[in-house]
Amino acid sequence: MSILYITLLTIGAAAIGTITGFGTSTIMLPILLLFFPLHETLLLVGIIHGFGNIWKIYFFKKGLRWKLILLFGIPGIFASYLGARIVFSFPEKTLSQILGGFLVAYVIFLFFNPKFKAPKNSITAMAGGTLSGLFSGIFGMGGAVRSAFLSAFDLRKSIFIATAGAIGLFIDTTRIATYLTNGARLETNLLIGLFIFIPASFLGAFVAKKIVSRIPQNKFRIIITAFIFIIGIKLLVFP
C-alpha cells in the first residue's frame, strides 16, 4: 500500500473518526491489516491515532473535563499496558480472528442497542476507561468503547471530542511504549511516511472542526458501522 493511499486514508479517517466518535484507528486498522502484519499495523496506527488525539485537544481544548479524563484515563493506562502485552503472547492469526469476531459482535450490539447508554457515575467512567484501554492495547481500537461509555454523560460535542481525545492520549502513549519495548517496529518506508501521515491527521482533524456541526452524525455512523461489519467478517473467516 503506497504512502499516498495511506495519507489519504489518514485524512479521511481522522475527519470521520473525530466527527462520529469511532476514532481514527477504528477506520484505519481494518484496512491496513489487509496489507501489513498485525504488530506493525498496531504500532503505525497507534502513533497516528496518538497525534490525532493531540489535535482533538488542540482544536477543542475548551471542552476538557479533567475529572472525567482522570476517571477514564488512570484505569485505562494500566489496562492498555496489559492489553499491549497480551498482543505478543498469542499467534497473529488468532488475534486477527478475535479482532474480527469483536468487530462483528460490536456491530450487532449497536444494531440492537442504537441508543445504549451506561449509567452516569464514576463506576461507569472507570469501567469505560478499563475496557477501552484493554481493547486499545489488544486490538488498537478502543475509541468506540470509550465513546459508548462517554455518551452516558450527555456531553456537548466539543466537550465530548476534547475529553475523549485526552483520555485516548493517555492510553495511546502507554500502548505505543509497550509495543516498542516488546519489539514492534515499522519498516523504513512507513517510518519515513510518518512525516506525512502525522500532518495528514492534523488536516483531517481541522476538516472535522469546520464541519462537525453540519454533518448528520447518524448517517456517518451507519456507513462506518457497515464497513466495520464487512471487515470483521473478512478477518474472522480469512485472517
Give an overview in words.
The structure is a single chain. The chain contains ten helices and no strands. The protein has 239 residues and is mainly alpha-helical. The chain has one domain. The radius of gyration is 16 Å and the shape is globular. The two termini are 18 Å apart.
Provide key terms for this protein.
globular, 79% helix, 239 residues, single chain, mainly alpha
The overall average pLDDT, rounded, is 82
Unreliable sequence segments: none
Q: Determine Rg (CA atoms, Å).
A: 16 Å
Structural class by SSE content: mainly alpha
> Main sheet?
none
What helical percentage do the residues reach?
over 70%
Write a short abstract of this structure.
The chain is mostly helical and 239 residues long.
Write the layout of secondary structure elements.
Layout: H1 3-20, H2 24-32, H3 38-59, H4 66-87, H5 92-112, H6 122-139, H7 143-150, H8 157-181, H9 188-211, H10 217-237
Helix pairs in contact: 1-2, 1-9, 2-3, 2-10, 3-8, 3-9, 4-6, 4-8, 5-10, 6-7, 6-8
